[in-house]
Amino acid sequence: MDVxxxxxxxxxxxxxxxxxELNLVACTTVNGNVPVENCSDNTLRTLDLIGRDDxxxxxxxxxxxxxxxxxxxxxxxxxxxxxxxxxPMPAARSKKQAMSAPEFLIKAFAGEHRxxxxxxxxxxxxxAAAIKLDPNFVNNVSEVMIMGGAVDKSNITESxxxxxxxxxxxxQVVFEAGFKKITLVPLDATHRALVSLDQCAAMRALGxxxxxxxxxxxxxxIKGYQTFQxxxxxxxxxxxxALCVAALVRPEVITTRHLNCVxxxxxxxxxxxxxxxxxxxTKREPNCHVALDADRELFVTMLLETFGRPHQS
Length: 313
Ligand code: BDR
Ligand code: CA
Prior knowledge:
With 313 residues, this protein is α/β, with parallel strands linked by helices.
């Protein structure tokens, strides 16, 4: 997983780290929700909380590949205090690795972890860096599952979703790279899988460290959404990144269409928009499977079942 932890990233990491049918190989971190050092620390805290400090964490890019001063991480924008620099979890016991995230990704997919799925749920800076560093990287990766973009929605500008907007040139590199299979899980799908305060209470009642931790961060998200981005349904929030992980084991949790997606990098009002040709207006070949819907009940059931399983902390 390539993460910018991040509240929903934390829930996604917990799901990947605890689901019995998944083997979380490593986390790489990237500038996004918070500066990359905080993302690494939050990732380590999350893994410690669920007793998965065996999962190595590699720190990646501290800024977008082409825009040195764009953007500031989301959490330190004065008017959008949605994300915390530190998650409400004890300080990390474990340490990040010395190798950089792009170097690790290149090495992992060229060797031992050739069969792994690459799951970027933050800005795509590390993935673009790996592509640029190693011409074989793209061919070594069999599948990419990305949280990002939007067809009919937006959440950072009037036309863009945060992960793509935060490093549009990196996203462009990724979508033009020729990966064998990309699945894109945009806001259109994640907003179909909202989690409610009542479901957080049910989660907390499970009594495990993961259930308690996930309930806290989702409740925090719900409060943020009530203030800044109302979902239209009382006391709910999307947990974007976790939906990507859920789809790895239960593909039917999302409904996809095979479509062409290009990234806007120049528009005055549209930088970072995922331009999806969903009515086949162009002759551009489909290059990704775009999730346009999600099964909310199945998603929440997966969270509850996985976090309710006994585990160490
Ligand atoms: C995405 O942006 C980040 O803030 C979240 O972690 C998620 O990956 C949603 O737009
Ligand atoms: Ca994220």
